[in-house]
Design brief:
16% of the residues lie in helices and 27% in strands. The chain is of the alpha+beta class and 73 residues long. The chain has a four-stranded antiparallel sheet with strand order 1-2-3-4. β2 (30-36) and β3 form a beta hairpin. 8% of the residues are buried.
Length: 73
């Protein structure tokens, strides 16, 4: 059986970006870091030290495609 690394990527160098449409009102926003090798991370902008979800680029692309095609609407 192969061991699985559960630590995830190092997010200390993540360059987090929030949509310009989010404004500065402190609403419900997520931030995305796309500068990590082989990973895309998202987090709650109101809790920057909290947990982050990490996806492969393929998983992220699939998710964005589903959102853009209104799959969840």
């Amino acid at each position: 059986m192969e061991a699985t690394d559960l630590t995830g990527p190092d997010l200390s160098k993540a360059a987090w970006k929030k949509s310009s449409l989010s404004g500065d009102s402190g609403g419900n926003c997520v931030e995305v870091a796309g500068n990590l090798p082989g990973a895309i991370a998202i987090r709650d902008s109101k809790n920057p030290t909290g947990p982050a979800l990490v996806f492969t680029p393929g998983e992220w692309h699939t998710f964005l495609s589903a959102v853009k095609s209104d799959h969840f609407g």
